[in-house]
Amino acid sequence: MPKQLNLSNLSPAQEREDRKRVGRGPGSGKGRYSGRGIKGQKSRAGSHKMRAGFEGGQMPIYMRIGKSRGATSKDAMPIGPFRTETVPVNLRDLHRFEDGAEVTPESLVEKRILKNTKIDVKLLGTGDVTKKLTVRVHAISASAREKIEKAGGTVELLREPKVRKPRHHHKAHPTAAEAAEAPAEDEATEE
Fold this sequence. Notes:
Layout: H1 61-64, E1 86-90, E2 102-103, H2 105-110, E3 120-124, E4 134-137, E5 139-140, H3 142-150, E6 154-157, H4 176-190
Parallel strand pairs: 1-3, 2-4, 3-5, 4-6
């Protein structure tokens, strides 16, 4: 590099590459078909502006596969309020915590049991607990709750469990023969 820079000794740090000039004769190496081959959709102008997932007009894969039933609104992700997902954490993973420690989604991330706190945490009962822990998670299995409380720990849910509505079983419509018998019985009871 020169001692003093001025307009006479300036040079770019990296030389510019010449623009590819196509269709300028066979001697250029990019003549005749300009590197696009012969015919077909990819040889035409505008052929590289197809949206992602476009399969040339054939029925695309995302329309060929089966659909999951249920609510699919964007604000009810993953798919509807009926299919929510949780990250499973087993009791065997809690051996990293000290006796009397508090187990929360944030502390699970600190101990590198979870990657992040974006998805709700469900504690499952695989393994044993010998330490007294205070557990605060979104959901917990019955066996995990039993083992933690047996070890002297406590469990608090960060989200109330969903109350399942009782299903109403509809009575089947009476057949024609049963419908004909019903008025006859009513008349007999009136007399």
